[in-house]
Amino acid sequence: MKSKKQLIFLSLAIGLLLMLVKFIAYFITHSNAILTDAAESIVNVIASSFAFYSIYLSSQPKDQNHPYGHGKVEFFSAFVEGVLIIIAGIIIFFKSIYNAFYPQEIKDLFDGSLLIGLTGLVNGLLGFYLVNRGKVLNSLTLHADGKHLLTDAVSSFGLMLGLLVMAFTGLNWLDSLISMGLALYIISNGYKLMRLSVGGLMDESDVNIVENVIKQLSINRRPAWIDVHNLRIQRYGDAIHIDCHVTLPYYFDLNKVHAEITDIDKIINENVANTELFIHTDPCVFQCCHYCNVENCPVRQEPKTKEIAWDIDNVTKNHKHFEVI
């Protein structure tokens, strides 16, 4: 968690510095497009500040009021960042329309484009680093902040090219057009970030994690694990909560059941980072016999006639496998 705080603090400090550089570029050139980029930097700083607080809060231990921890705040942080991005984009878009009818004198475009290109390079490198660290640390906040910075870098490079075109051609009316295009790009990325955060807050299933869990269970499958069903996964920040039902032979005693469940828990925790597993055990019924792999079963009613592979369709259903095949 200390690493997350350091990374987001680095993002905040660099964001403040780049915001200052962009406003200097605006005062040099009086370009509305540069003001657009500078205004988005204000959003970057606000978003990074909120992200820093969310990482601090998500690091707090579980308590009586938050038995699953505080990790969900990271989804809320990403949602707020998305909203701020969209608001900034809308304001920028309408200001661009205003300046199309009431343009300002633009000057020193070469100097302005150089400063904007420099900020784009720094944001791109930092954004790429944060996205990768966010994946490693399972942090949506770092991932979202990195994506935001990459968006800012792309818009800055696009702006730099536009400024150079204006400098060579003298077509200053492109200033408002470029600004409007950047605003639409910013709004689009804000929406994507909001969509991602809402999915997390609504416990939308992460297909990649579900498939990885099923893969690990299939690779390490044992004959006594007759089927696995009602698999559900929730994310709380970097923590992954998994619950499922496992069908075991009904004649297993409690110690044997506990041993099998402990082995499943160990397999998942060794192969899926930072998981907490809750397993409900179901006793087998005679309808399971035709796909049960237990050899020399003392209560088998019919021979095994079918092999049922575990996949996302049957493992996530709330039924034993003979009910969904």
Automatic annotation (TrEMBL):
It is a multi-pass membrane protein. The keyword Transmembrane applies. It is found in: Membrane. One of its GO terms (biological process) is intracellular zinc ion homeostasis. GO terms for molecular function: cadmium ion transmembrane transporter activity; ferrous iron transmembrane transporter activity; zinc efflux antiporter activity. Residues 8-202 form the Cation efflux protein transmembrane domain. InterPro entries: Cation_efflux, Cation_efflux_CTD, Cation_efflux_CTD_sf, Cation_efflux_TM, Cation_efflux_TMD_sf, CDF_Transporter. It holds the Pfam family Cation_efflux. Residues 219-284 form the Cation efflux protein cytoplasmic domain. The keyword Transmembrane applies. One of its GO terms (cellular component) is plasma membrane. The chain crosses the membrane at residues 7-28, 34-55, 75-94, 114-132, 153-171. Its main location: membrane. Keywords: Membrane, Transmembrane, Transmembrane helix, Transport. Belongs to the cation diffusion facilitator (CDF) transporter (TC 2.A.4) family. This is Cation transporter.
